[in-house]
Design goal:
Helix content is 33%, strand content 13%. The chain is an alpha/beta fold. The strands form 3 sheets. Strands 3-4-5-8-9-10-11-12 form an 8-stranded parallel β-barrel, surrounded by 6 helices. A two-stranded antiparallel sheet has the order 1-2. A two-stranded parallel sheet has the order 6-7. Helix 3 (143-163) packs parallel to helix 5 (197-218) and helix 6 packs parallel to helix 7. The two termini are 30 Å apart. Bound molecules: flavin mononucleotide.
């Protein structure tokens, strides 16, 4: 291995005691390929098996914690104890290849397609449609329903422990329910869950507390809890960097194992609420990196880019699409074969890359999403 790549291969220990063999994380990626009943399919297991040999940590696709939180066709579930065996198969597939396994736990809120939730009853913080789905106006959750969803996050954490996962990552990013409570765009409530920023923080922080409580109550050994968020929204009103600084300050008090900053472009610049002297990730690292490890992500393809990203001071790098395109990314860097890393795929590569058909269809039919060569 080239010596300048050594920073990528340093071990790291989290507060919980979970240790990783290196700094490369498989980013959470939905694959649309679970069984109709919410169990993990064999093709998904093979897809994870193929990608769990090199990275230190695999964060799974998001899993719905409540039945009315299913956000994608072919998403897997953790909403009942009947799912524990399916979750166990996923955790052990990942761990047998040498990576730590973290379950990304999620509720889709207003982004759930009506045909995936019982009675088409799409719910959110408030009855405000998103710009992506203007025709789906969600129903505002009742106070008691909010409490029930918070408990569902705890129940899923208990199931993740029982299934052998090394931890859970709360999906507070990409516009789904946890973010919907934090955003002034989707949350126009006037009760204790909305209005002031303190009230909009109440749901995300209650989820964190409940997940931490469940982990402490059930895990016998080290079990990590991470939190993923998107630093800004494009809408007005919507989350700004200033809001995010407040979120990060609160999360940093919660003894989390890491914060995972969801970005399409690692080096993207602030839109509102912080100046452009630094990228978003650098602002967040400056704010909280001394308190809690930060994971960065977004269009990192080469080991040189990954090392440059670590030079910001963040502790870990996640790669998503690139690990679909090149399942042996980490192994090739470790063995000094980085020149063999592929950065494009071809339409005939499905079997070679071990990608389930629904994900493959999405990859090749969504223009601009993946680098498709000849
Ligand atoms: C197919 C696909 C599915 C994704 N699903 C999720 C998901 O379930 N949860 C999540 O937090 N992010 C999800 N993302 C976002 C990725 O985790 C990541 O942030 C994004 O792809 C940018 O990183 P990359 O350039 O390394 O792919 C998904 C991305 C892709 C390409």
């Amino acid at each position: 291995m080239k010596s300048n790549y050594l920073p990528l291969f340093k071990e790291i220990s989290f507060k919980s005691g979970v240790q990783l063999k290196n700094r490369i994380v498989m980013a959470p990626m939905t694959n649309f390929s679970s069984n109709e009943d919410g169990t993990v399919s064999d093709s998904e297991l093979r897809y994870y098996e193929r990608r769990s040999g090199g990275v230190g940590l695999v964060v799974t696709a998001c899993v719905y914690v409540s039945r009315n939180g299913k956000g994608f066709q072919g998403e897997f579930g953790s909403d009942s104890d009947e799912m524990i065996d399916s979750l166990r198969a996923l955790a052990s597939t990942i761990k047998e290849k040498g990576a730590k396994a973290v379950l990304q736990i999620f509720h889709g809120g207003r982004e759930c397609p009506p045909d995936l939730v019982p009675n088409g009853d799409v719910v959110s913080a408030s009855a405000v449609a998103s710009e992506q789905n203007p025709n789906v106006v969600p129903r505002a959750l009742l106070d008691s329903e909010i409490e029930a969803i918070i408990r569902d996050f705890g129940e899923t954490t208990r199931r993740a422990v029982a299934a052998g996962f090394d931890g859970v990552e709360i999906h507070g990013a990409n516009g789904y329910l946890v973010q919907q409570f934090f955003s002034a765009h989707s949350n126009t409530r006037e009760d204790r869950w909305g209005g002031s920023i303190d009230n909009r923080l109440r749901f995300p922080l209650a989820v964190v507390d409940e997940v931490k409580r469940a982990a402490a109550a059930h895990a016998q050994g080290p079990f990590l809890v991470g939190y993923r968020f998107s630093p800004e929204e494009a809408t007005t009103p919507g989350i700004t960097m200033e809001d995010t600084f407040r979120l990060v300050d609160e999360l940093a008090k919660k003894d989390l194992d890491y914060l995972h900053v969801s970005l399409q472009e690692f080096w993207s610049m602030p839109r509102r609420g912080a100046d452009e002297t630094k990228s978003r990730i650098e602002w967040i690292q400056e704010r909280a990196g001394h308190l809690v490890p930060i994971i960065g992500v977004g269009s990192i393809q080469t080991p040189d880019e990954a090392v440059k990203a670590l030079d910001t001071g963040i502790q870990l790098i996640a790669i998503g699409r690139e690990l679909i395109v090149e399942p042996d990314w980490v192994e090739k860097v470790a063995e000094g074969r980085e020149s063999e890393i592929k950065t494009t795929l071809s339409k005939d590569d499905q079997d070679r890359l071990v990608v389930p058909t629904p994900l493959w269809q999405a990859i090749i039919h969504t223009p601009g999403w993946f680098p498709i060569g000849d």
